[in-house]
Amino acid sequence: MVRKSGILLISIFLMGLLWLQGCSSPSSDLKSGDNESVSSESCNQLVYESSMKLEYAENFSVDYYQGGYKLLSTMDGTRILTVPEGKEVPAGLDEDIIVLKRPVNNIYLVSSSVMDIFSKLDALDTVRLSGQKKENWSIEEAREAMDAGDILYAGKYNQPDYELITSEGCSIAIENMMISHTPEVKEMLESFDIPVVIEYSSYESHPLGRVEWVKFFGALVDKEEEAEEIFNNQVEILNDVAAEENTGKTVAFFYITTNGLVQVRQSSDYIPKMIELAGGSYIFPDLSDPENKRSTMNMQVEEFYDGAKDADYIIYNSTIDGEIRTVDDLLDKCPVLSDFKAVKEGNVWCTTNDMYQQSMSIGYMIEDFHKMLTGQEEDQMTYLFKIKKD
After folding, report:
1. Is residue 12 included in any domain, yes or no?
2. Rg for the chain (alpha carbons), in Å?
3. Residues 375, 316 share a domain
């Protein structure tokens, strides 16, 4: 009798282990906006194997299950299960899980920063629909694909061409947070059985956290190895720059709006962080607006003058209204800049207007900031150029 009881207890113990394994125990649970845990678990026939290792990104996870199944999760609780070709969809999945059969194709790509990811992954063939017109892309491969008819313009985030999107058999729409301003669009897409995923790369606190989103999309289109290589390349660039001493130089990064205000980055934004990583200091170390969730804020010219007039370098953000070529062009926008130390000493710089679409080049941007701060020639730079005096 004792022996039978012992066998029964062992059997129950072993069954418990199998149940725990079947339910999975992914290590990369996320937090939602209300700080409740968003588990990427899924019991039902899925046996957890491992989680993708992340170094900087905090707003997504990827978990791997036996049989080649993957579960991609984002900070808002969205979960995408990709099913290997020829495999069955597991029964009894949670209703909120988006199921995509691999290979994933016919993507409607609305978030402009993600096009560079797909280009670098050599995965533009998975994108069928674009939220930008051809002429608005600075990414040559995207323009060429649209020229060839391989990628079609399907309308902006707030005015998608539903007829075209549905007729092309769209598998998923990749959006950014702009879609939150038009929730009816998201609802309409979902009513056509087109799932929507929002990418949160802009919410990453570290610049390389943004780059690491290449791993999320690499997992989506089965290009994890390529994604790892792209990411590691950017990390190496940063490590080379970070190995050098801080220059002690201060930098202002700004843009003059059409109504005469100065738009600057909040201190917590990734641009000030890039300046810091490059060996400089952002001129506004404690700039924040608790009521403004955006990464930028506007200030009066007088306030900008008081805070930035002694900056060693000023960088004009050209991505909104185009590049400026001369100091006079800049002074036409804001005459008081003539009193700035950087203007007097000839340390006025401008970004190229394709900087923000080149999301996989953050390492190179940090490198450019470093070259500027250490007095290297601008012909060695990619995303910055010096503004000349007339």
Report:
1. no
2. 24
3. yes
70 falls within a domain: yes
Taking CA atoms, 39 is separated from 53, 66, 78, 214, in Å, by 17, 18, 10, 22
Helical axes 224-242 vs 270-277, angle rounded to 10°: 60
- Distance between CA atoms of 265 and 284, rounded to whole angstroms? 9
Q: How many domains does the chain have?
A: 3
The strand pairing partners of 255, in sequence order, are: 263
- Do residue 279 and residue 311 come from a single domain? yes
Q: Is residue 298 packed enough to be buried (19+ CB in 10 Å), middle (13-18) or exposed (0-12)?
A: middle
Q: Is the model's pLDDT at 355 over the cut of 80?
A: no
- What CATH number has the domain bearing residue 292? 3.40.50.1980
The beta strand positions in the chain, using DSSP E, are 30-31, 37-38, 48-51, 60-65, 69-74, 79-83, 98-101, 107-109, 127-130, 152-153, 172-175, 196-198, 249-256, 262-265, 280-282, 296-299, 313-316, 348-351, 384-386
Give me 61's structure tokens: 């996870």
pLDDT at 389: 82
Rounded to whole angstroms, the Cα distance separating 218 from 62 reads 10
Range of the domain at 92: 27-101
Structure tokens at 300: 């009066």
Beta-bridge partner residues of 65: 48, 69
* Total residue count of the chain as it appears in this document: 390
pLDDT digits (tens, 9 = 90+) for 190-223: 999 999 999 999 999 899 999 999 999 999 999 9
DSSP assignment of 82-128 equals EE-TTPPPPTT--TT-EEEESSP--EEE--HHHHHHHHHTT-GGGEE
374/254 same-domain check: yes
Q: Does 10 reside within a domain?
A: no
pTM of the full structure: 0.86
Q: Write out pLDDT tens, residues 134-174.
A: 999 989 999 999 999 999 999 999 999 999 999 999 999 99
User: Do 160 and 132 fall into the same domain?
Assistant: yes
Domain boundary among 45, 66, 101: 101
> Rounded to 5 degrees, what angle do the CA atoms 347, 351, 354 make?
170
Is residue 185 a part of any domain in this protein? yes
CA distances from 1 to 8, 10, 13, 193 (A): 11, 14, 19, 58
